[in-house]
Amino acid sequence: MQRRDALKIMAAGAAGAFATPPARAEQDPPGEIAWSRKVPVRYAADVAVLGGGIAGVAAACAAAKSGAKVVLVERFAITGGDLTTGGVAAFCGETAGQGEVFDEILADLDKFHAVTIYQPFPKADHRNFDHHLLAIVLQELLLRRQVKLLLHTRFVDVRVGSGGRISECIVCGKSGPEALRARQFIDCTGDADVARTAGFAVMKGRPEDGLQLSMSMMAFVRHVEPELAAPQLPEGWFAPVRSKAELPMTSIWPNGPRSNALKIKIPLFDATSTESLTLAEIRARRRALEVLDYYQRQEHKPWRYDGCSPQIGIREGARIVGDYLLTLADLRAGRKFEDAIARGVYPLDGHKPDDDQRTYILKPSERHVPPYQLPLRSLLAKDGANLLMAGRCFSGDQLALSSARVSTTCAMMGQAAGIAAALAAQKQTDPRLLDPQDVRRVVEERGGKLT
């Protein structure tokens, strides 16, 4: 059996032994229901930001700095997305010149001695930080900017009128379903949740089969005395890795004193499917114990399992079709745009989505890109009058995403989207009717290096 076929079987059976399988949808649903209810319009804002990852935080903070009344909706207890709840404790790419929001995040982390020293890209391609402290830093930054935070709150639905104008979105937290009314909306969900629910055009995966860039699980281990480091995986549980050849792509990351993180590639799941994402989480936590068992038994590492990140790390969900689609050709050409609002430098970091090895879509010689720009048009939803996006659901092809998805570039996108949304709200117009030079000027005034 080929490895790819075996992986598909494992993915499909991720909820097998030692776990209760999630209920599977019928191939032919038994029918449809219609439901409706009146919900209170509990919140009103100039700018509503859906999703509190690094792009959402930057968007909310930038809009608030521009004088907008901002509400940020986040489904977890903390903001930061993959950087915090995903356990990814590194900023990739160039960390200088990303704009004043990112500068303030770095400055606050430095006060806690929680981020490594700056070295310019490409001398260093990432900076490590304490992801637990980042959650606190982001929380306090948002509160200083007087952003209204709604934590433990999920985006549910939108009301869309003529011309693709969103009037309200429905959110749900412990108070039950409520409406959030805003003039401008920014989709920072990473998976284009707002756009998909609104019925706007989206895209995902590679063109030939829709496979998305693989997810990764961050599993944490503590260094202990050798006598305490006996393998913890009981006999008969899961499918332990017995040789290096069987080991999936695993990167060993620093995680503070006497600790490491194991980043493990988990392919062949769909981040936009309820059932598939459920199976991915199940598969990933099993895989973490299987991989750890290898390091304990075969390499005699004095490690003990210290848990996994609360959510699996997602590289690609769905991308929104925008007024402009950023392409691989744009990146390779170091393309510059008159309406530039962000800058990327990170290599084309797309691993093959159909295996669990350290294999890339492109050859090593093809992965480098010169500095390139992202246009404001790639943050404007083509079908929406007042919907912007930032982060990994921006308008770009899969390989453009593989570079621009890193946190530094996502923060720049978020800052620009927040500036544009606040400006549109002030002028009582749509973002695409703004002079893009007005947005670019503010981005640069606030420390965003575009050239």
Care to describe what's here?
This protein has helices at 3-12, 54-65, 100-111, 131-144, 193-198, 274-297, 328-332, 398-404, 407-427, 436-445, and strands at 41-50, 70-73, 90-92, 126-128, 148-150, 154-160, 166-173, 176-187, 202-203, 215-223, 250-254, 259-266, 303-308, 319-320, 340-344, 372-375, 387-389. It is α/β, with parallel strands linked by helices and 451 residues long. It has 2 domains: 41-206 and 316-445, FAD/NAD(P)-binding domain (3-Layer(bba) Sandwich); 215-308, no CATH class. α9 (407-427) crosses α10. The longest helix has 24 residues, at 274-297. Mean pLDDT is 93; it is low at 14-26.
What's the number of domains? 2
> What proportion of the residues form beta strands (DSSP E)?
15-25%
pLDDT average, as an integer? 93
Computed over alpha carbons, the radius of gyration is 22 Å
How much helical structure, as a percent, in the residues?
Answer: 25-40%
How do the strands and helices of this protein lay out in sequence?
Elements: H1 3-12, E1 41-50, H2 54-65, E2 70-73, E3 90-92, H3 100-111, E4 126-128, H4 131-144, E5 148-150, E6 154-160, E7 166-173, E8 176-187, H5 193-198, E9 202-203, E10 215-223, E11 250-254, E12 259-266, H6 274-297, E13 303-308, E14 319-320, H7 328-332, E15 340-344, E16 372-375, E17 387-389, H8 398-404, H9 407-427, H10 436-445
Parallel strand pairs: 1-2, 1-8, 2-5, 8-17
Antiparallel strand pairs: 3-4, 6-7, 7-8, 9-14, 10-12, 10-13, 11-12, 15-16
Helix pairs in contact: 2-9, 3-4, 9-10
